[in-house]
Each structure stands twice: as structure tokens, then as C-alpha cells.
Amino acid sequence: MFADLGHFNQLSIQIAFTCMVYPALILAYMGQAAYLCRHHTMESDYRIGFYVSVPEKIRWPVLAIAILAAVVGSQAVITGTFSMIKQCTSLGCFPRVKIVHTSAKVHGQIYIPEINWILMILCLAVTIGFRDTKHLGNASGLAVITVMLVTTCLMSLVIVLCWHRSIFLAIGFIVFFGTIEALYFSAALIKFREGAWVPIVLAFIFMLIMCIWHYGTIKKYEFDVQSKVSINWLLGLSPNLGIVRVRGIGLIHTELETGIPAIFSHFVTNLPAFHQVLIFMCIKNVPTPHVRPEERFLVGRIGPKEYRIYRCIVRYGYHDFHKDDMEFEKEMVCSIAEFIRSGSSKINGMSEDFDKDEEQRMSVVRSGSIRMLEEDGSVENTVGPSHAREIQSPAPALAPAAGVKKRVRFVLPAASPKPNAGVQEELQELSEAREAGMAFILGHSHVKAKGGSSFLRRFVINFCYDFLRRNSRGPNYAVTIPHASTLEVGMMYYV
């Protein structure tokens, strides 16, 4: 559980647990069992406990060690809970929560405010509710021995599936360790009604939340994949269908790395128009502190060149600073311009012929080689420095002074060859679209159970999953989206 946190390596944890932690636990439990066997005829159960079994001369030192162990144990519970919640969130088995990375070097050092508050409330509720160390001890004992028993069972699977050892070794391992732990587990179950029920109930509640969220997430993803629009559908769009291309750049946020999301077809079906330049943007957080600017953008093309539709995957490290919307828009447009200048489909040695059955691969685009200059339309564009090439949109017709727009031009590197007519035309259209402005299209999905579904399925999807989705955090976008330029498209998912 703690191996990926970076505090210690895997070998040190294995040695410490095998040589110190596990023998100490077994000896402690065996010592208490021996004391209870010797003094089980006492009239009062008050004297039966851990500190009574400790010799009086070393009772205070043991109490000090126990207090320090409680502090370490509380930190271990918090850190372990954060680690498991983060891993479950990454696997889509737990609702999204706010994760704060407290270290710029170690990816596993995190802080989750919501989970920290929940742990505090649960600890206070259990302590105030029981008001008895005996019940707390019963609950803690069952929780600890259950974790050890489950770990032993999973370890046997690791021996066979991951280490590729003999199945007889796995059986011997689970028989030797599992027999000892099963005895303690059966003894802890006797105290189920005297406080040991608490960890079982809490585990059942969290497992139910995870199962509901995972089930709803899987069904939503399956609907996205099945409803994903094919390239052939995109190629079938023509002016005869009433599709209109308006000026500007349309930026569509999507979580799909391939294909065209169903939200786009829903948008075009109800409003048969989209922008002259369309960008499907997907933001991914990678498990590294920082992503270099020249490796941040992966750009690809969707459909033929004439459609001017691109896909852009933006990668951020967990300690990267997300720039404001204006700076981010500039970098993204420059990365697409660099993709166009570098030969687009030839950038990875691929042919220019477009395959209708599959999209072209993504290409890492080094941003910064092409600069984008924005200036007022009233300022006369002069020919730039002799060592740079400029591509700009044609001068617009005269407009009123109050409606002056910014002119956009791309400055190519001096060492770059002169672009051909097709590349120059594509760059010019991109600059025109940038001048017209950028619109943000967001998808907002509602998941509902299909008609005729069972009562259990309708209850899980329509109530439980919907409640978790509405009260969990949404996906984090890298840009501060201006409300005046945002269009939210709602779509009903029937799963």
C-alpha cells in the first residue's frame, strides 16, 4: 500500500514487515492469549486487558510506546486512505475528489481534504458512540486481522500470477499463514455484536459506493464508445445536408482520445453548423511533476485537410501551472500551426493519403518554433524582419473604429523552408479563424436507465449514481473558460 508513495522502497518494506512487524504482532497476540488462558476465571472483566498483562515495572514505558504507536498509526491510516482513494479514483472506482499534491518531486505525497474531514467525523462518531475501550478494541482487532487475512489470500494470487511460481508454493503459503490468521479471525468474530460490527458496516458502505460508481462509469463509457461517431459519418457531411461552416475556432472538450464524441453529432443534428476550424481537445494529467512545454501538445488530424478538423491532447504534470485562457489559446493555436507547417501527415513518415477507417496518429509538436502576433486591425502590417517568414490573413474591409478587431499573423522560423501553397492556405485560414474568435463547446451528460430496466438497475442508475455524480467534482480543465464564449450541449445517456 505504501510502496508507491516514495518514502521507502519495496525491498525495505518487505524486510521490515517480514522480520519485525509480523513477528511482533504474532507475539503480542500470543502473549495476550496466554495471559487470558491463565486468568480467565477472574470475577471482573475489567482487569482483562493489554496493560494488565504487562508487568508493572515496564507498564509506563509500554504506555509511552503505545502513545507514539497511536500517533504513527493515525498518520498511517490517513496516508494509506489517501493512497487507496487516489488509486481507486484513477481506476474509475470512486467518485472524483480534490487531490492536492504536497511534494514537487514525489507523486504519492498527496492530501485529500474531503477524505480527511470524513475520517475526522468517523473517528469522533465511533469514539463518542462507544465510550468504551473494550468495544473500540474489538472493532480494531477485527479490522486488523481481516486486513491480514485478505492480504494473505491476495498474496497467493501474486505468487502464481505475477511471480509465476508453482501453485503448490502458493497453496503452502496460504495454508501456513492463513491457518494462523483464520484462528484469530474466528475469535474476533465472536465479538461481532460488541463493537466488531463497525468496520464491517463501514467496509460495506464504501464497497457499495465503489461498486455503484464503477458500474455507472463503465456503462457511461460503453455508451460513449458505442455512440462514437465514425469518420465515414464525418465524410458524409456535405452542403446538401444544410451544414454551414461559420467563422472562428470551435474548441470541443472531450474525454475521448480517439474518435468523434457523440456530443458532436448531437450538436450538429440540432444545430447544423460548426466553425471553420474545429479542435477536439482532451486534457490528460500524467504522473510526473512537470511536462516540458515542447512535449505538452499532441496534435493530429481528423478527416481530410479540407475539413480543418484537428485533435489536440494536452498533457499536464501534477505540479504544472495552468496558464490563463489567453496564453493557453495562443500556445494551442501555435502548436496546430506548427503541425501544419511540419507537413502534418508526413511528420512521422506517413503518407498523405487519408484512410477513412482509422485516424492518423498523434504527433508531438514542439511549441515555440512558430510565433503568433496579434495586433489591432487599424495598424498597418509591415513586412517583418528579413530573417523570418510571415503568414497573415488578407486585410479586411474597412470597418468602423469601434469594431476594430485584432489581426493575427504567424512568424515562421528563419531556417524553415518556404511552405507550399496548400500549407500556406491552411495557415492563412487558421489565422482568419483566430481573428474571428474562439468558442468553447462543453458536453453535459445525464445518465438514465433504459426503459424496461429492472427496479434495482433503475434505482442504482437514476438515484444512487446520479446522486454521486452531482456531488462529486467534475473534470478539471486547463483553461479558465469565459462564460460569454461557452456553449454547453446537454445529452441524455440511456444505459
Automatic annotation (TrEMBL):
It is a multi-pass membrane protein. The chain crosses the membrane at residues 12-37, 58-78, 110-130, 142-161, 167-190, 197-216. It is found in: Membrane. Residues 1-234 form the K+ potassium transporter integral membrane domain. It comes from Panicum miliaceum (Proso millet). One of its GO terms (molecular function) is potassium ion transmembrane transporter activity. Pfam families: K_trans, K_trans_C. This is Potassium transporter 10-like. Residues 248-493 form the K+ potassium transporter C-terminal domain. Keywords: Ion transport, Membrane, Potassium, Potassium transport, Transmembrane, Transmembrane helix, Transport. One of its GO terms (cellular component) is membrane. Belongs to the HAK/KUP transporter (TC 2.A.72.3) family.
